[in-house]
Amino acid sequence: MTSYSVLASGRRFSVLATWPGMYADHTRKVTTLDDGDVAGDLAAYLTHLSEGAWDAAPWLDTYPVIEAGIAELIGHLRGPGTIPQISLSGAGYRHVGQWSFHDVTDMLHSCLPDVLPLLSRAQRLTVADELAEDAAGRAEALQVLPFPQEPGVSASRAWQILEVTRVLGNGRSGPLPDGAAGWMVRAWGRGRSVAERWAARNRLARIEQLVAACRKSGGRGGAEPHPDPCAHLEVPRDASDAELDVFRVVAPSGRRHCRETSPFGPMVITGSGRAGSKPDVVAVLQPGDDEGFVKALGVWTLSVPWSPVRVPTTFAEGVPCT
To answer: Three-class SS of residue 131?
Structure first.
């Protein structure tokens, strides 16, 4: 969630990029302008674009669409032509209604095309380089964290993945996936390593996916953050059966115990058979075990896909791929 600010020096206004590394914040100059209002608008719009993209990267299935739009913008900035309005199509994706996707869509379609044409050729190129470097940081995070590994250098932008964004607060509140970063903090606390945050991400993403799959299959489902993050699922046994199987899928957080539970712990599935029955442990699974969830809950769990985030191939080493 790189944020952008303006530093005034006499009649010149520098737009600065700031992001949290492993140990400290890091800042670099993006470009310098003569107009303070234009610099302020540019900094605000770049912040919206970056924070929306960083929040979307680990949670939203629309994230590849976002990066494709940013790559298109970079191409226009590096070219000789005008900056057109860029439209993002969410057709076929589940997460088109999420705030971060909407915000990035607005930046690419309305806000940035208004301010970027006011920049000189040199200024356009430096903004393009900044957007590419920010996107490369997201790609790095998605490449190394699922294994799990950590970013290679302390100044990498990848360290900021899976955090509530610092300026706009994306991820702080709301249901999954809009408030996922906030759910993570409330369940497992602050100060977790990026590998631990990624493990927590997988558990919350599985909860969100199971709720969506349950609803798509004709059942009733909801997610709860307390006392431990869980999915509550009521699933018809078959199309002709009015009674429901009731399940809870819990990601233990350890908040009710003396010591914290590792985010790497398995998810616990309990079921009551029919509504009103005493719950029994059905299975204990890792979030990526698709086959295990099918055996425990049913084939309906495959009606909405769950998988680790796909890494867009849009960026490699900080420049758009051709």
So the answer is: helix
Same domain, 124 and 257: no
According to DSSP, the β-strands at 220-224 and 25-33 are unpaired
Count Cβ atoms within 10 A of the Cβ of residue 201 and give its class: 0-12 exposed, 13-18 middle, 19 or more buried: buried
166 belongs to a structural domain: no
Joined tokens for residue 203: 């558990």
Residues 154-206 have pLDDT tens digits of 999 999 999 999 999 999 999 999 999 999 999 998 888 888 999 999 999 99
Q: Are 182 and 50 in contact (CB under 8 A)?
A: no
Q: Is 27 a member of any domain?
A: yes
Q: Which domain holds residue 274?
A: 193-302
Q: Residue 319's Cα: distance from chain center in Å?
A: 21
Q: Which DSSP helix (H) or strand (E) runs through 134?
A: helix 121-144
Would 171 be classed as within a structural domain?
no
Q: Does some domain include residue 178?
A: no
Within this chain, do residues 216 and 78 fall inside the same structural domain, yes or no?
A: no
Tell whether 87 and 229 lie within a shared domain: no
Tokens, residue 294:
């099918």
Alpha-helix residue ranges (DSSP H) falling in 146-279: 180-188, 194-216
How far apart are alpha carbons 30 and 112 in whole angstroms?
A: 15
In this structure, what token pair is assigned to residue 159? 């360290």
For residue 226, what pLDDT is reported?
A: 85
pLDDT of residue 227: 86
Cα separation, 196 vs 211, in Å, equals 23
pTM of the prediction?
A: 0.91
Q: How far apart are CA 229 and CA 267, in angstroms?
A: 10
Q: What is the pLDDT of residue 230?
A: 96
Structure tokens at 187: 């369940």
pLDDT at 294 over 50: yes
